[in-house]
Write a structure and sequence with these properties.
The protein is an alpha+beta fold. It has helices at 3-21, 94-109, 116-130, 166-169, 195-205, and strands at 29-33, 40-45, 58-63, 75-76, 86-92, 152-159, 177-180, 214-216, 220-222, 227-230, 239-247, 250-266, 272-275, 280-282, 305-308, 317-331, 336-353. Helices cover 18% and strands 33% of the residues.
Length: 360
C-alpha cells in the first residue's frame, strides 16, 4: 500500500474514532413573527460534523417560512426529489478552529482505549492540522493555518435537522477543510453550500397559505346540483421564501418563489363528477381559477366545480382542494433555475342532501 493510500485510510480511521468520542450538539433555532401571518424569520444553526466542530454560519430563513426551523407545508410533486440532507458550510476562523479542534484532539487522546491503532490515527489527524500532513488532494495545514487567520475559514459538515434518515443526515463526513475568502470550496467537496442548496432549503421550509376554495352552494349542496368552485386572484398570490448564509468573507442567498398554476378537486367519493372531467382547473388569464357563481346559473355547467350523485347521508364528504404551485429560484451571482412543482391541499366538509319532492 502506498504512503498516500495509507494516510487516507488511517486519517479516515481517526475521523471515525473522533466520531465515537464526541457527543453531537443539536441545532438551535430562534424565530420572530414577520407580521404577515405567513411564516417567520428563522435562524437555523448550521449543526455539527462528526468531530464535534459546530459550524458558526447560520442559515437564515425569511419570508413565508415555517416557524422555529420546522418543515413547511409544501409537498413536492416529484417523489424522487428531496432537500439536501447535509452540506458543508463555514465553521471557524483559524484561531478559533485551533482552540476548538486541539481541545477535541486532546480529549480524544486522553480517553480510555486510545492506545495502538486508535491513538496513531488521532496522531495523524493532529499532524494533518499542525504539521502539514496531507494525502491525495487533501493538503495538510501548518499550525491550523493560524498565519492566515482572517483570510478564510475552516468549513465543516452540517446535518439537516429536518432530515429523518440518520444515515443521509450524517453523510457529509469530510474532515473540516480551509477555504480562502472569495474562493470557491475545492470541487472534491461536492456538498459545499451553494445558492442551489439554499434554494432547496428555502423550499423545504416554505409555508404556503391555507387557502379555502369558494363554493356555491357553500357547505351544503343537493344531489345532481352543480357546485361551483373558484379562487379569486386576490385570495392567493405568489409566495416567497429566502435562505441566506453570511459570515466574514462569505455570503450567499437564494429566494424560492411559488406561483399557483392550477386547482385540483377531489370530491371525497367516487359517486361524483368534476368539471372539467380531469378535476384540474387551470389558472385563467386574469390570475383567477374558475368563475364565481351568479344568480340564475344554477343549472349551468361550471368551468370549475363538481356534482355529487348521491347523498352524504348523516355525514359529510371531504372535498380535497389542492393547489399546484410552480417553483423557481434565484440566487447569488445570477444563479437560478426551477425546482419540482409543489402542492398543498385543504379539506372542506360538504353535506350533500337528497332533493325532496312532495306529490299532491
Amino acid at each position: 500500500m502506498t504512503r498516500s493510500r495509507r494516510a487516507a485510510v488511517n486519517t479516515g480511521a481517526a475521523f471515525l474514532t473522533l466520531a465515537c468520542l464526541v457527543t453531537l450538539t443539536e441545532p438551535a433555532y430562534s424565530a420572530e413573527p414577520t407580521g404577515n401571518d405567513q411564516g417567520s424569520t428563522t435562524d437555523q444553526s448550521a449543526g455539527t460534523d462528526r468531530t464535534g466542530i459546530h459550524a458558526s454560519a447560520r442559515v437564515q430563513y425569511s419570508g413565508s417560512v415555517a416557524a422555529d426551523g420546522g418543515t413547511g407545508n409544501v409537498a413536492s410533486t416529484d417523489v424522487n426529489w428531496e432537500p439536501p440532507p447535509c452540506w458543508y458550510a463555514p465553521a471557524f476562523g483559524a484561531k478559533a478552529f485551533k482552540k476548538k479542534m486541539s481541545a477535541e484532539l486532546e480529549k480524544a487522546t486522553s480517553a480510555p482505549g486510545m492506545a495502538g491503532h486508535a491513538g496513531s490515527a488521532i496522531g495523524q489527524t493532529k499532524a494533518h492540522y499542525e504539521d502539514e500532513f496531507g494525502w491525495g488532494d487533501n493538503p495538510g495545514y501548518k499550525d491550523y493555518n493560524v498565519a492566515k487567520d482572517g483570510e478564510g475559514m475552516f468549513w465543516a459538515g452540517v446535518e439537516n435537522p429536518n432530515e429523518p434518515d440518520i444515515l443521509k443526515r450524517g453523510a457529509c463526513t469530510d474532515l473540516p477543510f480551509w477555504v480562502d475568502n472569495g474562493e470557491a470550496p475545492p470541487p472534491r467537496h461536492e456538498r459545499a453550500i451553494t445558492p442551489e442548496i439554499l434554494a432547496a432549503l428555502a423550499y423545504q421550509h416554505m409555508q404556503l397559505p391555507n387557502t379555502k376554495v369558494s363554493l356555491a352552494p357553500e357547505q351544503t349542496t343537493k344531489v345532481n346540483l352543480p357546485t361551483w368552485a373558484w379562487l379569486d386572484k386576490a385570495v392567493f398570490d405568489e409566495v416567497q421564501a429566502t435562505a441566506a448564509i453570511n459570515v466574514p468573507g462569505f455570503a450567499l442567498t437564494a429566494t424560492t418563489t411559488a406561483k399557483p398554476v392550477s386547482l385540483r378537486l377531489e370530491p371525497g367519493t367516487p359517486d361524483a363528477e368534476t368539471y372539467p372531467a380531469s378535476g384540474e382547473c387551470a389558472i385563467g388569464a386574469d390570475g383567477s381559477i374558475g368563475e364565481p357563481y351568479t344568480e340564475g346559473r344554477a343549472d349551468q355547467t361550471p368551468p370549475c366545480g363538481l356534482r355529487y350523485l348521491r347523498s352524504s347521508g348523516d355525514g359529510t364528504f371531504d372535498l380535497q382542494a389542492t393547489i399546484t404551485w410552480d417553483i423557481a429560484w434565484t440566487g447569488s451571482g445570477g444563479a437560478g433555475g426551477d425546482l419540482p412543482d409543489g402542492a398543498f391541499g385543504t379539506t372542506q366538509a360538504i353535506t350533500v342532501q337528497e332533493i325532496q319532492a312532495v306529490n299532491r
